[in-house]
């Protein structure tokens, strides 16, 4: 008997896997991990941490707006991480060398890209079109080829002028 995976996903959605179980597990896991890390109930407070995380996870499900926001934001965050990893892969492939994470230029570039994608992920807009209206208005007033050349030139400058790290 053949199964259609799209039908399986639709069935999971119908029975509440995405709307109830996954949001609960996410909130429970994050809360439990934080409580275990900060040890607010002492080193032997694992049972209390489980109860608190369980209660917070169930209370989170009570607010439909929060569950819907979580379901809206997390796929965008996942997509942003995918784009970021592909960007790193592309940079590594084009330069042919490993980049040190302690390099301030690369850290700044990664931070700026992360901020842009985070702003997009938490924005209420589905696409980049509406979320970036102020930026698009700027691009409309400046010839687009100048902006594209500036961005590409800045990236090439960052890649080419990277100073090798010295070890002492």
In a few lines, what is going on in this structure?
This protein is mainly α.
Helix content: over 70%
Mean pLDDT: 78
How many distinct helices? Answer: 8
Catalogue the unreliable spans: none
Shape: extended
Number of strands: 0
Domain unit count: 2
Which helices and strands, and how do they pair?
Blueprint: H1 5-15, H2 17-38, H3 46-62, H4 64-95, H5 104-122, H6 128-131, H7 133-141, H8 144-160
Based on the model shown, name its key terms.
2 domains; 78% helix; 168 residues; 8 helices; extended
How would you describe what is shown here?
By secondary structure, the chain is mostly helical. The chain has 2 domains: 1-62, no CATH class; 75-168, no CATH class. 78% of the residues lie in helices and 0% in strands. Helix 2 packs antiparallel against helix 3, helix 2 (17-38) crosses helix 4 and helix 4 (64-95) packs antiparallel against helix 5 (104-122). The N and C termini lie far apart (64 Å). The model has no long low-confidence stretch (mean pLDDT 78).
């Amino acid at each position: 008997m053949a199964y259609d995976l799209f039908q399986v996903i639709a069935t999971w959605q119908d029975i509440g896997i995405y709307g109830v179980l996954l949001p609960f597990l996410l909130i429970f896991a994050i809360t439990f991990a934080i409580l275990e890390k900060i040890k607010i109930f002492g080193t032997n407070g694992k049972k209390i941490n489980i109860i608190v995380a369980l209660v917070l996870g169930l209370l989170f499900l009570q607010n439909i707006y929060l569950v819907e926001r979580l379901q809206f934001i997390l796929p965008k965050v996942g997509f942003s991480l995918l784009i970021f990893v592909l960007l790193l892969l592309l940079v590594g492939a084009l330069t042919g060398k490993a980049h040190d994470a302690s390099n301030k230029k690369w850290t700044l570039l990664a931070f700026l890209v992360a901020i842009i994608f985070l702003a997009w992920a938490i924005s209420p807009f589905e696409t980049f079109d509406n979320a970036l209206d102020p930026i698009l208005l700027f691009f409309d007033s400046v010839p687009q080829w100048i902006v594209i050349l500036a961005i590409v030139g800045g990236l090439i400058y960052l890649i080419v002028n990277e100073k090798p790290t010295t070890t002492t």
